[in-house]
Amino acid sequence: MKQKLTYLCTLAALLTATACTHDDAPAPGGTTEGTASAAFHIQTRADGTGIGQNQHAYLYLAERLPQLPDDEKLYCDKRYNVGNGAYLIENLTAQWYKMAFICLPEGVEAPEPAESNHEFNDYVIDYSPVLINQDAQNPNKKDLAIYRQVIDRWLLPDETLREDVTLTRITGQLVLDMGILKDQFPGTVSNITVNLGKMPQKVYLHDNVDEYPDDAIMTNSLSYSFDISQETWESNDHFRVYLDLLPYDLTDATVKVKHEDETEDGATIEFPLVSGTHGSDVNTAQIEIKANTRTTVYFRGMEDTEFEVRYAGFDNLSIDVDGDDWNGWN
Question: How far apart, in Å, do the first and last CA atoms of the chain sit?
Answer without folding.
Answer: 75
